[in-house]
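Protein modeling request. Please complete all fields; requests missing the sequence field cannot be processed.
Requester role: graduate student
Desired output: 3D structure, token encoding
Chains: 1
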Amino acid sequence: MRHGIILAKSLPAKKCGIQTGETILEAQRKCPNLVLVPPNYSLYEQCSAAFMDILREYSDIVEQYSIDEAFVDMTASCRLFGEPVDVAEQIKDRIKEELGFTVNIGVSSNKLLAKMASDFRKPDMVHTLYPEEIQSKMWPLPVSELFFVGRATAKKLFGVGIKTIGELATADPVWLKSILKKQGEVIWGFANGIDLSPVLDQPPANKGYSNSTTTPYDVTDAETADRVLLALAESVGNRLREDKVQIEVVSVGIKYKDLSYVSHQKVLQAAHTI
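Delivered output (274 residues):
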């Protein structure tokens, strides 16, 4: 079936170029013999909740980043549990023994570096990436592995001769901004290990609301397209009403069967609740 995305990938699948978040169709083009296993959301939710419960035993400040990722601020609690790497090893081993799955843990002084460290060699590992380790551990990596650098941005960077994180870090930030606008400044900072965002124990308010779907067949008439868009708009509208928020910009994007993508947006004259 052509709807759905890759939620997680095995190490052998990763070697074939499979990426989390890409469509099943894209993944099968890379690997025709790809084995697909349907998700078990209820099991994921149970495991995620148990995982977060263990993390909260070590700190009051835990920010859940996704169903299987979190940031833990141990600035104060390390005084109770010990050195950061030792505590990380303890958490990793407890999760494996008590919950039956493995995790990678990154240890650093900010969220960006901890996230990058957690993506180093897997599985079941603890890695550090302190500021003094950036040049040796992070700069040699392909620029596509830097957090916040997606496929389109990586392609632009490759096109101007920037292939590693180190080359990005030593590039002129003014020049980068001229090419990538605000994102150029952000990823230049990330390449240099700069991240001032705190670990938040409460999720921030949504900056946007969205919904999407992949139809099981090509939509070629306006009536069917209207029905699909109406269903998506009503879903988003329900969430807006539940959260009692208003919107100022409406955007609609369409991906065609050849995976090309177009979008249009409209700024409203006044904020509205749908």
